[in-house]
Specification:
The complex is a heterodimer of chains A (354) and B (134).
Chain A (H helix, E strand, L loop, with lengths): L7 E9 L3 E4 H8 L5 H5 L3 E4 L6 H16 L6 E7 L10 H8 L7 E5 L5 H14 L5 E9 L14 E10 L5 E10 L5 E2 L8 E2 L4 H21 L8 E4 L5 H9 L4 H4 L5 H4 L6 H12 L5 E5 L1 E2 L3 E9 L3 H4 L6 H6 L2 E2 L2 H7 L9
Parallel strand pairs in A: 2-15, 4-5, 4-6, 11-12
Antiparallel strand pairs in A: 1-7, 1-8, 2-3, 6-7, 8-14, 9-10, 12-14, 13-14
Helix pairs in contact in A: 3-4
Chain B lengths: L4 H6 L1 H6 L1 E5 L5 E2 L14 E5 L3 E10 L12 E8 L4 E6 L12 E11 L6 E9 L4
Antiparallel strand pairs in B: 1-2, 1-3, 4-5, 4-7, 5-6, 7-8
The chains are: A alpha/beta (354), B mainly beta (134).
């Protein structure tokens, strides 16, 4: 039986990373951590959104880049899914602003999704379903965050800003088509943020094995079983990247050598962009992939769940690569700021007005 | 300093997408869009989306900022000439005062422009940042 996923593929991809960088050693200096902490987490520096950037503007630029590569009429995109855990408004969709700014409105679905770091990925699976069913020709999934971390928490080394977006469309127009997808979720209390809390908390005992590793491994093994594939069949493996170490370790547990994980690893240089994390990794792999190569992608979100996708690159990819900036272009475009400016830019310093 | 929500909403196409107006008589383009051509007085204009890239003709750095703008300070306002010759006054972003210069190539991006305090509307609009070369 033909899997519905195989009728669809990615017709355009785009990423965005803000210009400002905070070195991990700044967090060590300000909060009195051991000097070895950045090395233990494999984090060198992280991207920080400027004072006029939020998840919406960051997601907009990734989406614009995806549109530039897709070269489709924006009005033909009939769904915009915006996955984030740093919505500028608690109530008022960001997806409508992005859709309006890109000329996609008014005849489109548009919604903001929440599932910690895999909300954008839920949007990607929904996009595959909507396109493969014939309800629409194109749908867009965006993963974007200005990730929050409690100042002085170990999360602050990595929590960063960035986004990636994918336009899903017919397989015959795609730069990479889907072979299959698989989702695995359970109720797991590894990480959460209450309604009016400014920063998330994490349930220490749950963050590693029972959450990240269990869900990604279960999703990927489920996909392998359904497709009859194994790690040797893939050229690249991209995982959610809460730090630089976890994706390498989960890759090893699943039988992927380091060489297949490194091309999509971005966290050591830009931090964990939450919903942008695995998505930017996939965008970076598409920036360099060649026709015929097979890519595994497995985002993860706390709470907890993981999706695994298998993609096969087509010969259309080469003509699309130069149409928008690459992830590497954005990683190279940087200027360092200190902890004071970072605090101001990210609203950690609160001012009052008379 | 609060903006008018209805006015901003009416003008969102020009704020979000650099939509200007072209005079149906003399063909000149204005930004922001105008219902009457400021060049020939003709009363019929049509919407036109402007190129996103241009260069800085001149700029000014504002250190004493209005209420609500301290988080963005210093503000850099640019006079930008777009690739089709249309001139636009807009904030510059992702650039420090010591980096900005006349002739700098810039491109339009969507950024936060203003917000009505902590609880009001957030206004998004076009700003220009140094162009990405790729």
């Amino acid at each position: 039986m033909t899997r519905p996923e195989s009728k669809t593929g990615i017709v355009g991809w785009g990423a965005y990373v803000p210009r400002y960088r905070l070195k991990a050693e700044e967090v060590v200096r300000v909060w009195g951590f051991e000097k070895s902490m950045p090395q233990n987490l494999f984090i060198i520096e992280k991207a920080v959104g400027g004072p006029d950037e939020d998840a919406l503007t960051i997601g907009w630029e990734a989406a614009r880049n995806a549109l530039m590569r897709a070269q489709v009429d924006p009005a033909e995109i009939k769904a915009v899914f915006f996955g984030t855990e740093s919505k500028p408004y608690a109530v008022k969709p960001s997806a409508t602003v992005i859709a309006e700014a890109l000329g996609i409105t008014p005849v489109t679905m548009a919604s903001d999704l929440e599932f910690a770091c895999r909300a954008g990925s839920e949007g990607l699976r929904a996009s595959i379903g909507l396109v493969s069913s014939g309800m629409m020709k194109y749908a867009m999934a965006i993963g974007s965050d200005t990730a929050q971390a409690n100042p002085g928490d170990v999360l602050e080394f990595t929590a960063s800003s960035g986004a990636a977006a994918f336009i899903v469309g017919p397989r015959e127009e795609s730069v990479a088509y889907f072979e299959g997808s698989y989702t695995y979720v359970t109720d797991t209390p590894d990480f959460w943020r209450r309604g009016l809390s400014p920063y998330p908390l994490h349930g220490e005992g749950f963050t590693g094995e029972p959450a990240y590793f269990h869900h990604i491994i279960s999703a990927v093994k489920g996909l392998f079983e359904e497709l009859g594939l194994g790690p040797e069949d893939f050229d690249y493996a991209v995982f959610h990247q809460p730090n630089g170490k976890f994706p390498l370790r989960v890759g090893k547990k699943l039988g992927f050598p380091k060489e297949k994980v490194m091309p999509g690893l971005v966290t050591p240089w830009i931090g964990n962009t939450y919903n942008g994390s695995a998505f930017i990794g996939l965008a970076k792999v598409l920036d360099q992939a060649r026709p015929g190569q097979r890519i595994l992608v497995a985002p993860f979100g706390s709470g907890a769940g993981s999706d695994a996708y298998s993609l096969v690159v087509t010969d259309k990819i080469e003509e699309k690569k130069p149409l928008a900036p690459t992830v590497e272009d954005y990683i190279r475009r940087k200027i360092y700021i200190d902890y004071s400016l970072y605090s101001r830019f990210r609203g950690i310093i609160r001012r009052i007005t008379a | 300093m609060k903006l008018s929500i209805p006015r901003f909403w009416r003008e969102r196409a020009s704020h979000y997408r650099l939509v200007g107006s072209r005079c149906k008589s003399c063909g000149k383009i204005s930004y922001p869009p105008k219902p009457v051509c400021p060049y020939c007085g003709h009363r019929e204009t049509e919407e036109v989306e402007l190129p996103r890239r241009g260069r800085v003709l001149s700029y000014t750095v504002i250190y004493t900022v209005p209420d609500g703008f301290r988080k963005y300070a210093p503000l850099i306002l640019g006079l930008v000439e777009l690739e089709n010759g249309v001139r636009v006054v807009a904030p510059l972003t992702d650039v420090m005062p010591h980096e900005v210069r006349t002739g700098m190539k810039v491109e339009a991006v969507l950024r936060r422009v203003q917000e009505d305090g902590e609880h009001g509307v957030i206004y998004y609009g076009v700003k220009f940042r140094p162009s990405m070369e790729y």
